[in-house]
Write a structure and sequence with these properties.
Calpain_domain_III, Peptidase_C2_calpain_cat, Calpain_cysteine_protease, about 25% strand, 6-stranded antiparallel beta sheet, disordered C terminus, Cathepsin B, Chain A, Calpain catalytic domain-containing protein, alpha+beta, globular, 5-stranded mixed beta sheet, thiol protease, Jelly Rolls
Length: about 475
């Protein structure tokens, strides 16, 4: 896939080619603060360009695959696991994230093998992501779904695996449907991103992210066995139980089955597990849905159209102005100062007049340590209340119809709604009042109607 470079990139390239200078990024200079943390102050650290590291450096060798990815000193397994998901499930999308038509020399010949020390696309993607987040230390731990949202613009969801411990068939079917829709999944032994990598006795590591690269079923001793394939971004250290690379069970299936499952007994970080063993060992499943249909596919089977439209709002919680918190006493009145978004739902023209919406709230400029507890509440505008606003709606003008049970300490929060035709108000908020911050609110709907913006403090979207 060929990606058209931007005019700014081409102008910069022409300037550097004409002058013979090497590019120095003014926004991410080769100094300690770009590394961040105590390690950034280490005087022994040197910044090197690829030709100073190896002979014949190359950006990509024979395409980008998950086997190219090996984690180094930074604990950014969440990013690398997410990148491996793209390389496995949607190489075309990875080419949009990492345009392949570039290299260190105008004329070059590919040499070396996959994953060689002179292949740099993973390292440079990691550097670009560190720049996006302010420093390398700012990407030291995180969540797979958040990295995937950043890479793809998809919708984030976290599933607590233990909730399906008594119904593994349901979870397996759900995850299989996700892979059919080319969405992405990662998982972790424990659900907190900040835990230190620690071996738990069976080849798995806590505080570590794995890519989900495949699910399948096979017949084994006249029984159907559900299997899941994972990849460790370290490129080594694998599950040592049933269906792991060294499991005796591989000797009891046919060569055709081994070929179909791409079984390879080597320490490359990729391995199979029995799905019920996976449920027993993993706590968090991190999903990035590329489309609202994928997200709704887990929760509803009556979606009648795949023609979705989206609207994006960028807002702020401003100290003493619009950071109203959750409305708990003694700050009930402050809640109504939060930003408000008016959604007008029109009939779809079918027997089922309910309209499907997916709403996603993202905190900006946050890290895992500074995320606020967030939520969004949905209200219906009461009959007779004017929609022509110059100020926020008040409590007496709205009726609460939907709120998530809990405020959660995450960067991305996504939920689905089925709404009757009418007028609704979405209120994103933090749990505590006067917590300033920036956010992005995305609203996906089944029908496309031009949005209407209400001045000043309320915003409108017709769907």
């Amino acid at each position: 896939m060929e990606i058209e470079p931007s005019e700014q990139y081409l102008d910069l390239q022409d300037e550097l080619m004409a002058t013979g200078k090497l590019f120095k990024d003014p926004d991410f200079p080769a100094i300690g603060r770009s590394i961040g943390g105590p390690i950034g102050r280490d005087p022994e650290i040197r910044w090197l360009r690829p030709p100073e590291i190896t002979i014949n450096p190359q950006f990509i060798i024979k395409g980008m695959t998950r086997q190219d990815i090996y984690q180094g000193r930074i604990r950014d397994c969440f990013l690398l696991a997410g990148t491996a998901c793209l390389a496995t499930t949607s190489p075309e999308l990875l080419y949009r994230v990492v345009p392949p038509d570039q290299n260190f020399n105008v004329d070059y010949t590919e040499t070396e093998t996959k994953g060689a020390k002179n292949e740099f696309w993973v390292s440079l993607l990691e550097k670009a992501y560190a720049k996006l987040n302010g420093s390398y230390m700012n990407i030291d731990t995180g969540f797979v779904n958040e990295a995937l949202v950043d890479l793809t613009g998809g919708l984030s969801e976290i599933v607590r695996v233990e909730e399906y411990s008594s119904k593994p068939k349901v979870l397996f079917k759900m995850m299989s449907k996700i892979t059919e829709k080319a969405s992405f999944m990662g998982c972790a032994v424990n659900i907190n991103s900040g835990s230190i990598d620690e071996e738990v006795g069976n080849g798995l590591y806590s505080g570590h992210a794995y890519s989900v690269t495949k699910l399948t079923t096979i017949n084994y001793k006249d029984k159907t066995v559900r299997l899941i394939r994972l990849r460790n971004p370290w490129g080594r250290r694998e599950w040592s139980g049933d269906w792991g690379d060294k499991s005796h069970k591989w000797r009891k299936v046919s060569e055709n089955v081994r070929l179909m499952l791409e079984y390879d007994n080597k320490n490359d970080g990729e391995f199979w597990m029995d799905f019920e063993d996976w449920i027993e060992n993993f706590k968090g499943l991190y999903i990035c849905h590329l489309t609202p249909e994928s997200y709704f596919g887990l929760l509803a089977q009556n979606i009648i159209t795949s023609h979705w439209t989206s609207q994006i709002f960028h807002g702020k919680w401003i100290l003493n102005q619009s950071a109203g918190g959750c409305g708990n006493p003694p700050h009930r009145k402050l809640f109504w100062t939060n930003p408000q978004y008016l959604v007008s739902v029109q009939p779809l023209g079918s027997k089922d007049n309910n309209i499907s919406l997916v709403i996603s709230l993202t905190q900006k400029d946050r890290t895992d340590e500074t995320n606020d507890y967030i939520n969004f509440l949905t209200f219906q505008v009461k009959p007779g209340v004017s929609l022509n606003r110059q100020k926020n709606f008040t409590q007496s003008e709205l009726a609460l119809i939907k709120r998530r049970k809990d405020f959660v300490n995450v960067r991305d929060l996504t939920a689905q709604l089925r709404l009757h035709p009418g007028h609704y108000v979405i209120v994103p908020c933090t749990f505590r009042p006067n917590r300033p911050g920036r956010f992005m609110l995305r609203v996906f709907s089944e029908v496309s109607v031009p949005p209407q913006t209400v001045p000043k403090v309320s915003y409108s979207l017709a769907v």
